[in-house]
Hints:
The chain is of the alpha/beta class.
Amino acid sequence: xxxxxxxxxxxxxxxxxxxxxxxxxxxxxxxxxxxxxxxxxxxxxxxxxxxxxxxxxxxxxxxxxxxxxxxxxxxxxxxxxxxxxxxxxxxxxxxxxxxxxxxxxxxxxxxxxxxxxxxxxxxxxxxxxxxxxxxxxxxxxxxxxxxxxxxxxxxxxxxxxxxxxxxxxxxxxxxxxxxxxxxxxxxxxxxxxxxxxxxxxxxxxxxxxxxxxxxxxxxxxxxxxxxxxxxxxxxxxxxxxxxxxxxxxxxxxxxxxxxxxxxxxxxxxxxxxxxxxxxxxxxxxxxxxxxxxxxxxxxxxxxxxxx
Length: 307
């Protein structure tokens, strides 16, 4: 199966052909995949070289002229390194773009910590007005990329990963998908962690919600699920643990509830290893998730606690 990033260049190249507003801005990474598109649209496919602050600034300038820029590089170079430009050139100036990242939290372990960005979504959470898509399958990535480009002049972040679920789900760029219904808690699986969550909860009486759009969070769907399954919520995210617990707490602020946020830990893992070994080390494989979900839901039976 191809990867989410494999879909990126073909989808955006077609959008360049279809929509004269679409532009692509690159910082060396991924340029070869746009070779043909650059020949067809030399004024709308721009490679600024290894200059990530310029990458964002140039994209914001294109947005000010009325174009819809799609900006791509590794997450650590797209969100973390040029964060001041993301904050000012887009947010302060009121411009929009589609930021599309690769490498995610630990997709390229051999690249070391410089190429890992588990804090990217949490960092964008400090800014106003960003939509955040986290697809879990290449088909979903294609759908959400099209949604993002078509979203007027909004600010959108699409987080691509080499991790993928076995099958695509029907996603629409806005709503949670109910994958399984139960009565003893709600587990929200974000993007490529759905399969691990389903394996971990196979015999548990819990509702499993699937999130590929985490900002804004689909509050009505979450509230409906907790009415039937109770207000113990486990949140499983493929980036920094606890990133979305505040969003869940806000959604349930009028109800007694508990939230457990699972995700990538803050401690740096200094061995390269494999993607699977990093997932296991952070407790994001089926075995690690089952242990912590059992502990949380078991501790909450018969108790009502608000966090």
